[in-house]
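Worked example
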Amino acid sequence: CILTMAKTAHYYRHTVASLTLILSLCCIIGTSNARRFQKLDSIKTRPKHLLLLRGGGGGDGRSAWSINKRNQQQQQQSVKRSNQQSAFPIVEDLDDSKSDTTQQTLETMEAFLSRDTRQKFIARVYAILSGQLSFTTLVVLFFSSNKHLVAQMLQHGNFVPFLSLGVSTVAWFMICSSERARQSSPLKWQLLSIFTIAESIVVGIIASFYSMRAVILGLSTTAITTGIITAYTFLQKNPKYDLTQWGSSLASAGLIFLLMGILRLLVYSGILPAYMLPVSDLMHAGIGATLFSFYLAYHTRVIVGGKHAKYQMNEKDYVFGAMALYSDIINMFIYMLEIFGGASRDR
């Protein structure tokens, strides 16, 4: 009986892990497509007033005041040349200077408004994400504390985790593929609720196969790792390490890891022999946790945006951004569970 439950635990764990990997892979493929993001100008081609507003200088590394000084010199030279050619050039130059100043003021105000909009967008994303993670944590702790209820549910309806994954997959694809679904209310909130509830059920069932100690360690480690990655992404200002350009590379790495997961699923299902496994369980879990850590850093950078990012997420897609981060964190937690403990044998 114990051996049968152990095999069942392995089967469910790796099946659900593979399907959740598909969800995150779809997330990476969708967000790595540049057409879903606002493509930002390079630092060298951005207007000087926007660079000054953000504390930057010219693209050649000069200080901010040198740009104004150079422009003032050019304006003075143009005034002198026009004075030599016309008897009434000063009025025209004053009008041109006034219009340039007005245009610059309007563009500067627009930049300030854009920055405020971005901050509101980030706040919305993390507020939604906090609600999702809080709900999922409660479900995980409840399922882990009531393993007998999960066992009874699986005995009478072992289709529940797969049905939940199917529902969450449909909700996720609707969000990814439809701009209306991402931005229109109340549809986006309905899809968000369905996705979060379905994913929480799946993660809760997976957590029930592990000991409470492994669950607590997995939750703690995932929370600490998420905090460190988020802080690093917010504070990292070096344009040489622009994470928004990693989309294609991460999608390729995710595809390779997905093939490894499918291979493991076939081995645990008895279709392939055990020696076909390329790595051990612990190594596979470590690779998965590391990979989804990079996914989390990539999505966080796309959401934060800023002057050092090549791409950034649209401010109207805050539900989509929260779901992307949530998917990365959930997958990272699943592999943390696999690292900290084997399947529970106490049922």
Summary: The beta strands are 37-39, 311-313.
